[in-house]
C-alpha cells in the first residue's frame, strides 16, 4: 500500500486543479466524480483517515466531518473565497490548516455583479420576456423604464477587493459618488475608488444602488433587513452577490412587494437552490440567478488550481499561497 498522504476531493473540480493533484505524485487521490454534491453519508465515510480534504462551498465542514476524518486530517482546502461553510473553531481546535481561493475570482464576480445590477435596474429579464411573449405592443413613453447609473450614488456594504473591483467597473458609467460602510473605515481600499465611509443608515438613505459585498459572519447574518430596506429610497436597487445569509428574505420580499425599494438582483439566496415556489420568484422586480458570480471557465479553473496548490503546500508543511490564519 502507498504511503503517500491520502486526499479526498468532494467534487469533480475543473481540470487544472485535478491535473495539479494528479501530476504532483505527492498524494493518493480519491474523488467524488460528479457535478452534484457528495451525499453527507458518503462524505463521512470517505474522509476517514484522510490527510487532506479539498471541498467546495456546498460541503458543511463541521465537527461531525472532522471527527469522521480523525486525527490524520491536517489540511483542508476549499475551492471558494467564502468560508461560512467551515466551522473555523473546530478546525482551529484540531490544528487543521485551511486554504481558500481569494483574488482569482475578483474579476469574474465584479463583472457578474455589474451585469446583474444592469439587468435589474434596466429591467432586462422582464423586457426580454415581454418581447418574446407578445407584450411588445408599440413604443411607449414610460414602458419598462428603469434607473440609470449616470449621476447616481453607489453604496457598497463591506468594502474588500470585490467591492473595489465593482466600483472600478461602474465608474465609467458616470457614477457621481461611491460610499461604503464596514466594521471600520478601509482608507487604502477606499482611496482606490474615492469612496466615502458612511454609517449603515446613511448607506441605506443615500444609495441609489446598494451592493452587498460582505462576507457572511455572525455579525453580518441578516444585516440587510427591514431596518435597511425601510431606510432606502423607493427608487433604489439592491444587489447581493455575497451570501444569501446576509439578507432577511421575508423583509426583502416585503420591501419589493410594497414598493419600498425599486428592485433587487440576487445571485445568492437562502437556501440554494431557492425553491421554485418561493415568493421572491413571483416578483417582476426581483432578478434571481443561481449563484454564478464566479462562473467563468478561466476563473473556475484558477480557483481549482489554487485550491490544489494550497492543499499540496499544506501537506508538505510549506506556506500556502492563500491560507486562512485561524
Ligand atoms: O468562492 C465563493 O465563495 C463563491 O461564492 C463562489 O463564487
From TrEMBL:
The keyword Oxidoreductase applies. Signal peptide: none annotated. Keywords: Oxidoreductase. The keyword Oxidoreductase applies. One of its GO terms (cellular component) is cytosol. Residues 114-293 form the D-isomer specific 2-hydroxyacid dehydrogenase NAD-binding domain. Coiled coil: none annotated. GO terms for molecular function: glyoxylate reductase (NADPH) activity; hydroxypyruvate reductase (NADH) activity; NAD binding. It comes from the Eukaryota. Residues 7-322 form the D-isomer specific 2-hydroxyacid dehydrogenase catalytic domain. PANTHER family: 2-HYDROXYACID DEHYDROGENASE-RELATED (PTHR10996), GLYOXYLATE REDUCTASE_HYDROXYPYRUVATE REDUCTASE B (PTHR10996:SF230). Belongs to the D-isomer specific 2-hydroxyacid dehydrogenase family. This is Glyoxylate reductase/hydroxypyruvate reductase. It comes from Electrophorus voltai. The lineage of its organism: Eukaryota, Metazoa, Chordata, Craniata, Vertebrata.
Amino acid at each position: 500500500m502507498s504511503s503517500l498522504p491520502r486526499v479526498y476531493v468532494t467534487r469533480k473540480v475543473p481540470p487544472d486543479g485535478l491535473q495539479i493533484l494528479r501530476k504532483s505524485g505527492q498524494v493518493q487521490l480519491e474523488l467524488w466524480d460528479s457535478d452534484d454534491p457528495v451525499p453527507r453519508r458518503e462524505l463521512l465515510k470517505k474522509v476517514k483517515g484522510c490527510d487532506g480534504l479539498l471541498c467546495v462551498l456546498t460541503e458543511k465542514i463541521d465537527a461531525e466531518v472532522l471527527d469522521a476524518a480523525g486525527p490524520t486530517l491536517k489540511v483542508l482546502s476549499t475551492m471558494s473565497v467564502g468560508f461560512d461553510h467551515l466551522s473555523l473553531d473546530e478546525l482551529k481546535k484540531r490544528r487543521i490548516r485551511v486554504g481558500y481561493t481569494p483574488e482569482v475570482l475578483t474579476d469574474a464576480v465584479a463583472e457578474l455583479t455589474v451585469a446583474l445590477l444592469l439587468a435589474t435596474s434596466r429591467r432586462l429579464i422582464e423586457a426580454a420576456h415581454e418581447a418574446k411573449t407578445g407584450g411588445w405592443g408599440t413604443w411607449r413613453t414610460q414602458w419598462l423604464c428603469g434607473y440609470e447609473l449616470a449621476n447616481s450614488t453607489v453604496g457598497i456594504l463591506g468594502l474588500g477587493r470585490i467591492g473595489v473591483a465593482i466600483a472600478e467597473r461602474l465608474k465609467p458609467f458616470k457614477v457621481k459618488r461611491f460610499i461604503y460602510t464596514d466594521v471600520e473605515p478601509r482608507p487604502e481600499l477606499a482611496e482606490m475608488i474615492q469612496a466615502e465611509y458612511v454609517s449603515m443608515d446613511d448607506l441605506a438613505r443615500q444609495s441609489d444602488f446598494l451592493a452587498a459585498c460582505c462576507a457572511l459572519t455572525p455579525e453580518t447574518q441578516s444585516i440587510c433587513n427591514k431596518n435597511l430596506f425601510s431606510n432606502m429610497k423607493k427608487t433604489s436597487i439592491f444587489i447581493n452577490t455575497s451570501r444569501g445569509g446576509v439578507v432577511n428574505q421575508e423583509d426583502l420580499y416585503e420591501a419589493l412587494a410594497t414598493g419600498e425599494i425599486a428592485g433587487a438582483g440576487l445571485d445568492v439566496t437562502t437556501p440554494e437552490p431557492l425553491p421554485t415556489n418561493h415568493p421572491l420568484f413571483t416578483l417582476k422586480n426581483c432578478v434571481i440567478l443561481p449563484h454564478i458570480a464566479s462562473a467563468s471557465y478561466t476563473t473556475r479553473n484558477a480557483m481549482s488550481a489554487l485550491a490544489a496548490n494550497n492543499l499540496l503546500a499544506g501537506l508538505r508543511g510549506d506556506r500556502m499561497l492563500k491560507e486562512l490564519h485561524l
